[in-house]
Write a structure and sequence with these properties.
Layout: H1 6-12, H2 22-52, H3 54-58, H4 60-77, H5 79-89, H6 95-129, H7 134-137, H8 140-163, E1 167-170, E2 175-178, H9 184-223, H10 232-271, H11 280-304, H12 306-320
Antiparallel strand pairs: 1-2
Helix pairs in contact: 2-4, 2-5, 2-11, 2-12, 4-5, 4-6, 4-8, 4-11, 6-8, 6-9, 6-10, 9-10, 10-11, 11-12
């Protein structure tokens, strides 16, 4: 028997099933392809920047930034690419097994990213409020343990829907996802636990940490008088710390802005029985905006941090002139 194209099957169900138009497919595919390119090359640039820049390489927080870049890179190469192919074909093309794998990867990366952002906020809290004790409290081994924990928790929560077979391809989201309506009674326990441990508690800790950090940076800035030469060095250190904090704050805000529409539509699907309550095209838009979170971080670092900006310039020079040996003020060379 010939294989039935799922799109043709949809069309056979008369006018009852709404499908994307050709214009919508082309527009969505172009947007998604742009985000894939930006995510893949941007996050590769972040990883290389940390490797070639000695100051970045020696900073403990850079390991967490690299971990965040790795999650965004994997997202671009797996979830976003599979979504792009399905968007172009107008149906899922990789089979049921791959659907479950991609869904698990997607949820694992979302959870890992959230926990990594939380750990970054804790690192900044210790660095700004307890600078003398920071080297003792935040060691490389502890940072590596935090990174390992973020991945372990991500894997644990992402395999549950796969084991319980809750996953199907969502046509309008253009991604394999949990079908909450079909397994609502069982899923409610999973949703509550995952929400508390993977989002609410890390998010609360993140907000509290950055609130305390920003308050301390502002307090210290007011105390340091610009005309006092004895405090010039301390003022410079706090100025640099403030820039780092500001860049990370923008990263956090960008993550929440990008992921909020996706999260809200998911929450509505858990609460509301009617699957058509959220229009399909809103789900597509929410997915596209959510994917922006994987592409925006390298841009933020390049705009707000001189250390990353100088490393980006170095990488670009090396690409344009492979035989040229170039260095930066941060002793960056290769």
């Amino acid at each position: 028997m010939a294989e039935v194209n799922i799109t043709e099957a949809y069309k056979a169900v008369d006018e009852m099933v709404d499908l994307r138009t050709t214009v919508e497919i082309v527009f969505s595919a172009i947007c998604l392809l742009t985000l894939i390119i930006a995510s893949v090359f941007g996050n590769i640039a972040v990883i290389i920047a940390v490797v070639v820049n000695r100051n970045l390489r020696e900073a403990q927080a850079s390991f967490l930034i690299v971990n965040l870049a790795v999650t965004d890179l994997i997202n671009g190469l797996t979830v976003m690419v599979s979504s792009f192919c399905s968007m172009v074909a107008d149906h899922w093309v990789f089979g049921d097994a791959m659907c479950s794998i991609v869904c698990a990867i997607n949820y694992c990366l979302i959870i890992t990213s959230m926990l990594t952002l939380c750990f970054i906020s804790f690192d900044r809290y210790q660095a700004v409020l307890h600078p003398m004790k920071y080297p003792m409290w935040i060691s490389r081994n502890k940072v590596c343990m935090a990174i390992a924990y973020s991945w372990i928790q991500g894997v644990v929560f992402s395999v549950v829907p796969v084991i319980l077979q809750w996953i199907q391809y969502d046509y309008w989201e253009a991604v394999c996802a949990i079908q909450w309506q079909q397994e609502k009674k069982q899923a409610v326990y999973y949703v509550v636990t995952a929400f508390l441990l993977c989002f609410f508690l890390p998010g609360l800790a993140l907000v509290v940490n950055y609130f305390l950090v920003v308050r301390e940076v502002r307090r210290a800035s007011r105390l340091i008088q610009p005309f006092n030469e004895r405090l010039a060095s301390r003022k410079s250190n706090y100025s640099q710390s403030s820039k780092v904090v500001n860049s990370l704050l923008v990263v956090v805000m960008a993550y929440f802005v990008c992921m909020t529409p996706f999260s809200v539509t998911k929450l509505i699907k858990v609460i509301v029985t009617d699957t058509s309550f959220v229009p399909g095209r809103i789900n597509t838009l929410a997915s596209l905006v959510g994917y922006c979170s994987s592409a925006v971080n390298p841009l933020v670092y390049g705009l707000l941090r001189k250390d990353f900006k100088s490393s980006y310039k170095l990488i670009l020079k090396k690409i344009l002139h492979p035989t040229l040996k170039v260095t930066t003020q941060n002793d960056t060379s290769f």
